[in-house]
Design goal:
Chain A is an alpha+beta fold. Helix content of chain A is 56%, strand content 17%. The relative contact order of chain A is 0.14. The chains are: A alpha+beta (215), B mainly alpha (281). At the A-B interface, α1, α2, α4, α5 and α6 of A face α3, α9, α10, β3 and α11 of B.
Chain lengths: 215, 281
């Protein structure tokens, strides 16, 4: 009898542990996800000496490994391009998404390298139905003596779980703010012109050093 | 740098006239009918910034000890708390008024003329209010975007409110003139220094800085007037249609191969969660 019980017990434990580790990506609530990424990224940025010293490669690597997998840059591009998206060819959409993603990586890296040691983030509780697939997660960043800064995220639940597709800093949404830039450029030089401009900007940013963080 | 005489209503009238005159220009943004005028002023500001203000602010940030910078920042911040408090009252926000006026009193006394943000250390929040926001709160529309010489982004409504804000700024009444001007110059440098990081970021991120700043500023200003600064409430459901209109239906391009090194990290086995966040409709 004993060996069978032991077998069942072991099997049950193995199943339980396996279930915990292999929890489907979509099970984590969106605010929990953002909070996790946020602390992970902030802790790394604050404790890594190279990042604190302005090592560009490291910050970009940090963004690519810890932030980008949770951002739907394709959706961000589709929204920022607005009505022009609907007239773009699939090839143009692809190129535009790629270039915009690269620009976003540089922008996030720049923002990350400005994080100061005493910046703290506080997340608001989530009041949403588990069935909702579009959610806004709100947080506040405080640094000693400064005004609290609003930092909000919009997420969509897709096949691969929750992904961020818009960010609000200091009251301005990223998509809304880029919409103007995108539409003027497209009006002037078409979608290909916009793609070319983004590509050129990315080249410039690749060769520029990141600003060193303030003391 | 600041004028010592009050900006006159004539200034506002001139601007309004210019607006009418230029409204015949073709623009593609309904919120910025004065775009040509604004771009010109923006350019002027940019030149002045690069030539004088930015280098001075950068030097200030590097050279001046941080506790001195903090004191300066707190000192001028304290003066604005008084004006914010008055505007809180004008907007019928007694709890915010209590915060701001309380801050002003505590910091002016225990905080030694505002040098130390004692109230902040006690956790009393600061609410940013000015006359333009008060007008907006009571329904005065912002009107077209306007870039002011040296002062930067504003709107017609907020520009009209400037003389009021100027009068409500305690420092304006400081005598003698020499000290007032020195103080104002320091305040301008302090403000610019606090925006150095942000302006560097915008330079890299924006395809057209003028537009980027305009669109970002207008969103932020609207948020300030309605105190929701991008929504201050709890996290919750998002209505895509009301946030993005028709664009909400845009279908993303298929995902391309991820760059090297972006293997999605697996969450650690002991990660949070068992207690789900409170859910309510």
């Amino acid at each position: 009898m004993k060996p069978i019980i032991t077998l069942i017990a072991t099997a049950t434990m193995a199943f339980a542990t396996h279930a915990a580790i292999a929890a489907p990506v979509g099970n984590e609530a969106p605010d929990v996800l953002v909070k996790r990424i946020s602390s992970d990224v902030l802790d790394t940025a604050k404790s890594d000496k190279d990042i604190q010293a302005g090592d560009k490669q490291k910050v970009v690597a940090l963004v690519q490994s810890k932030i980008l997998p949770f951002v739907d840059t394709e959706k961000m591009t589709a929204l920022a391009a607005g009505r022009f998206w609907r007239t773009a060819t699939p090839a143009q959409q692809q190129r535009l998404s790629e270039e915009f993603r690269t620009l976003l990586v540089f922008t996030y890296s720049g923002a990350l390298s400005q994080i100061k040691k005493d910046d703290k983030v506080e997340f608001k509780p989530l009041r949403a139905d588990p069935a909702d697939t579009d959610v806004e997660v709100r947080s506040v960043v405080t640094s000693s003596g400064g005004e609290p800064i609003q930092l909000n995220y919009r997420l969509n639940k897709g096949a691969q779980g929750w992904k961020i597709f818009d960010i609000n800093v200091l009251g301005a949404w990223l998509v809304e703010t880029y919409k103007g830039n995108f539409s003027s450029e497209i009006n002037k030089t078409g979608i290909d012109g916009l793609i070319a401009k983004l590509a050129e900007r990315n080249k410039q940013l690749a060769s520029k050093p990141l600003a060193a963080p303030a003391k | 740098m600041k004028k010592t005489t009050m900006p006159s209503t004539r200034f506002v009238a001139v601007v309004a006239l210019a607006g009418v005159a230029l409204s015949g220009c073709a623009t593609n943004n309904p919120r910025d009918p004065l775009e040509r005028l604004n771009r010109g002023i923006y350019k002027f500001n940019d030149v002045a910034d690069r030539a004088v203000l930015k280098p001075v602010a950068t030097g200030y940030k590097k050279v001046v000890p941080s506790f001195v910078q903090k004191g300066v920042h707190n000192f001028f911040g304290n003066l604005t708390d008084a004006w914010s408090g008055l505007n809180d009252i004008l907007q019928g926000k007694p709890d915010h008024a209590a915060d701001d006026l309380g801050r002003f009193v505590i910091n002016s006394t225990f905080g030694v003329l505002g040098l130390f943000d004692v109230a902040g250390m006690d956790g009393v929040p600061k609410h940013n209010e000015d006359l333009g926001q008060t007008l907006g709160y009571w329904g005065v529309p912002s009107g077209p975007y306007l870039v002011l010489p040296l002062l930067g982004p504003s709107t017609i409504r907020d520009t009209a409110a400037l003389p009021g804000d100027w009068y409500g700024d305690i420092w304006t009444h400081k005598d003698p003139t020499r000290w007032r001007n020195i103080g104002t110059a320091i305040k301008v440098v302090d403000t610019r220094a606090s925006l150095l990081d942000a302006s560097d970021l915008v330079q890299g991120a924006a395809l057209d800085e003028y537009e980027f700043l305009r669109d970002g500023y207008l969103q932020r200003r609207e948020g300030q007037v309605h105190d929701n600064g991008g929504s201050k409430g709890d996290s919750g459901k998002l209505d895509m249609k009301s946030a993005y209109g028709d664009d909400a239906d845009n279908v993303s391009a298929p995902k391309t191969t991820p760059e090297a090194g972006t293997t999605a990290p697996t969450p650690p086995a002991e990660s949070t969660p068992a207690t789900p966040a409170p859910v309510s409709k």
